[in-house]
């Protein structure tokens, strides 16, 4: 895919060189993505050669194009591991859902999508509403160390929250009857619903969060650059095109905003 040059690369000035050094200190931008069995506006899938394919991977490539550097992908099984990698400087940039715990660990720019998390239940379940999950006998699976599982735990203080390492594992738990529901973004649950015949997505939501671009702490020039990049990617129509190309025509691009 050819990406438009809608953000100027850092100049050769002292500040420009400092920006480039914060964004890609190794000379290659190390970009984090999260893998799942089904592609969404956040999760990537892998091609036959193991390379990630999806919206966030394409945005990473577009950012590398703006910088004029190559890209090295770090593919994580969940966004909790991605947060660890970004905080420790193993990677330079990533997208992930925002919450206060992550704000203490990494710096966020704008969001490109706002997720709403809810529950997926089996067809034979007596659970018909989110409120039905808030009881000690209810087991709800979520992905370990993520914004969604933390938001679910706050919304369902009486339920038993069961951590899984991957989306695929959480779906297996539901399919096998080990949990009563899986909590994920509504758009993601829709991708897996057909694989569990008769399953239902509950109305309402457990929590909502923006999926935003993020960099390690103490890289203010990098944060400023990636924030401008993402706002330009939204304003130019690139994010909308990537959603549409991935078949995500009903997903709405987050509105323009300043850096978080």
Automatic annotation (TrEMBL):
Protein keywords: Signal
Matches recorded under PANTHER family: ARGININE-BINDING EXTRACELLULAR PROTEIN ARTP, MEMBRANE-BOUND LYTIC MUREIN TRANSGLYCOSYLASE F
Signal found in the keyword field: yes
Tagged with keyword Iron: no
Gene3D superfamilies, per the entry: Periplasmic binding protein-like II
Entry-linked InterPro entries: Solute-binding_3/MltF_N
Source organism per UniProt: Herbaspirillum robiniae
Annotated Solute-binding protein family 3/N-terminal domain residues: 28-246
Name listed for the protein in its UniProt record: Transporter substrate-binding domain-containing protein
């Amino acid at each position: 895919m050819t990406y438009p040059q809608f953000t100027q690369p850092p100049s050769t000035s002292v500040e420009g060189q400092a920006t480039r050094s914060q964004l890609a200190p190794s000379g290659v931008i190390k970009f984090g993505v999260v893998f799942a069995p089904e592609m969404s506006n956040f999760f990537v899938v892998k091609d036959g050669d193991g390379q990630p394919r999806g919206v966030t991977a394409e945005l990473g490539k577009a950012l590398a194009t703006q910088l004029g550097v190559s890209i090295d992908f770090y593919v994580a099984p969940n966004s909790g591991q991605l947060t660890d990698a970004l905080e420790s400087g193993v990677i330079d940039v990533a997208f992930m859902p925002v919450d206060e715990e992550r704000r203490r660990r990494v710096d966020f720019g704008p969001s490109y999508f706002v997720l709403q998390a809810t529950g997926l239940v089996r067809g034979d379940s007596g659970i018909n509403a989110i409120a039905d999950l808030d009881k000690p006998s209810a087991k709800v699976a979520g992905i370990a160390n993520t914004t969604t599982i933390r938001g679910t735990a706050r919304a369902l203080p009486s339920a038993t929250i069961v951590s899984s390492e991957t989306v695929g594992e959480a779906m297996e738990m539901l399919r096998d009857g080990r949990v009563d529901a899986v909590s994920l973004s509504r758009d993601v649950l829709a991708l897996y619903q057909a694989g569990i015949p008769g399953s239902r997505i509950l109305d309402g939501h457990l929590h909502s969060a923006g999926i935003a671009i993020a960099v390690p702490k103490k890289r203010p020039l990098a944060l400023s650059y990636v924030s401008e990049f993402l706002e330009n990617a939204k304003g130019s129509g690139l994010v909308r095109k990537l959603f549409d190309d991935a078949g995500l025509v009903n997903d709405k691009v987050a509105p323009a905003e300043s850096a978080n």
